[in-house]
């Protein structure tokens, strides 16, 4: 009888402990084949990992502390399926690595994490459109993470929420060097979702870009290494009407003191429509217009990108997709560049891509 009682007690304790804490292994693999009509002067077929969503795996966990408080953490890796290499410049957990406390008032996290632009504009302006325009300068495609950061995210209050982030620069005697400040808010209720966010990155070439890769960015790479700040502000909204979802928004990205002591400014206007042909088939059309003002040069180049995307859900975790993207450059701009592909040598570029995503 004592043995039975002990076994029951151990079982109850085990169940209690399991209920109080949990760790989840998760991830996503995105791999496909792309055709690019002009990549550095020649057409090419190539394998591409993470063309739509960055391939990743990670751990996230929660421990209930009592009184409505929980300890939380996330460690998320990014990698290239095609080669097996680490992404985010070789970081082990380059996408996210943070720990924090969730409370009845909100969540505080510390580590490497995403800014409020990703929280409140990404889900509205990047959902379903495929490759982001202008090398994701505005970070709505969540390509850039912020290290050394403290973040507060509020709970949801009747559909409204907000967050704020501050990243310490870590340079002795220069408190603001390499620092980041961000704030955002959103509202979601019924068919309507809306968001607004602002992020300011001091010394963005080092803070977000790790001091590498500017030469491959046709549209703003020449201004990035000398920029004092990257200031991003944006608004966006989506509305669902039956099987159709409309998205619209605008972002303004300014690289301050980046060319002869003046600013390089990029305004991007986004409009998108999603139509669910069936519960497992989504069709998307999107148009992005970027209008730039390049300091004292008087240049006002324009870049346009048009996306047609089809997505077929094989299950809740697996889908296959295809897209056709067409980009043009004008008003003084002579070369087009879609997302993070190699730039065209002409003012036109086309990308056809077929891919598969599997989530676990």
TrEMBL record:
According to the record, the signal peptide region is: 1-19
Residues in domain Porin? 9-327
Q: Where in the cell is it found?
A: Cell outer membrane
Keyword terms, alphabetized: Cell outer membrane, Ion transport, Membrane, Porin, Signal, Transmembrane, Transmembrane beta strand, Transport
What's the protein's topology in the membrane? Multi-pass membrane protein
Which Gene3D superfamilies does the entry mention? Porin (2.40.160.10)
Pfam families in UniProt: Porin_4
Summarize the subunit comment: Homotrimer.
What protein is this chain from? GBP family porin
